[in-house]
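Problem: given the chain below (485 residues), write out its structure.
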Amino acid sequence: EVVKTYLVDVEGDSSLEGEYVLPGGALNTVVEADVTAVVDLESIVKEPSASEDEGIYTNDDAETVNEGGSVEFKMTVKGAEATPEQIEEIPVPEERIGMVLDMVLTKTVTDTSGSKTESDIEDTKTPITTVIHLPPELQGKSGYTIYRFHDLGDGNDMQTITTSENENGEYLKVIREGTAIELHARLYSTYVLTWAQRSGGGGGSAGLEVELPESVVGGKVSADRPTANPGDRVTLTLAANEGFAAGQVHVYTASGAEVEVTVNDDGTYSFTMPNEAVVVTVGFGVDCKKDAACPIWPYTDAAPTQWYHDGVHYVLENGIMDGYGNNIFKPSATLSRAMVAEMLYKMNGRPAVTGDEPFDDVDEGDWYRDAVIWANANGYITGYGDGTFRPETAITREQLATIMLRYERKHSEVDEELTKRVPSLPDAETTGEWYVEGVNWAVAVGIIGGRNVGGTDYLLPASTATRAEAATMVMRWIEKVSTKA
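Solution.
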């Protein structure tokens, strides 16, 4: 038995339905239809444009047709091979280059006299759709990415097309259960299709890391995968703590470029994995409309719109800090040792205190008496060698960090490696010897950040902490790491 194979053309519409015309007497025949791509060109001619700067089917073209002439658009899609230079420029292993296509769009205008004018169209101005049928060895993979080699005249001769729409409205979509790619593009040259691995994870690349923050004030973030391949869609889910709401989500490549993030209808966030590892940053804010219901609202010297809103709102709402009376909060005032003792005391439910005052300058009836006795007894804030506590002495940023670390060491397991991690801020070396571990730890876990001075962030460890700064630090501390006694 002899089986012959014939390569035939298929005449039909974009649904790929048509008649196969075989040679007479061809028995026991296998038919192979060579259909690499189906192109939808109808969108080009729906509405004529004023000029070719706006669209490739112009008012002049429409007039030619009305007079009895014709305008023909033809897309030619041919298999090709990537050049050595292109292979070197594409940021994926050569073995993952799956298909190379030369795509050429031509326009032929025939006037009423029969004269023809033919030209190649490099930019259709609006994307047109091309369905690319994948050969079996390229089907069912993940991380499809197209690298287009097209000279834009600005030194950028290679562009990337992924499942995320770019500024020109171009993107790709996997369709027909992974057997075809639907390409939406407006520039036509050489297209190189790459892939990552088979869907389902059977072998292939281990992927690029999706790095999430270790801890976040006000909530948590998770990703649907720890690693991803270029072109994969990664979904992030934010879970806000009570009293907080999801805020900003940013994704950056390892080289510092920001990746576009999309907000989904279900409240999750998604992005398309680039060609390098990424770092995810998220922010949660206190859930507040910043209106009369905000606990800051009654204070005449503080405003819900200021940078300190979340921290001050948090400590007021949770009863950790109070105002001075007469609707005054004094956000820029310095924080005293007595105030810090009182905050810790309130955080822990104001437990009963017994015994006499251990300090010469702390008396019965002082508003901070119980807090100071309790803080000293627990070793959080101790007095001076001369028998005084000095309750009104201002606390510095490095001292507050050290008190927090001292508290944490008594109530939880501290990662001591963080106490050795010197901050990268330019004045970190000025931290006092007694406070180095506390400052290192507080910066590492995100409790303390830099203070901007003249456009540069400085640690300023020996500077006094304002009440607004302290409120923010306490909020970060409690929401990120603290374990109450």
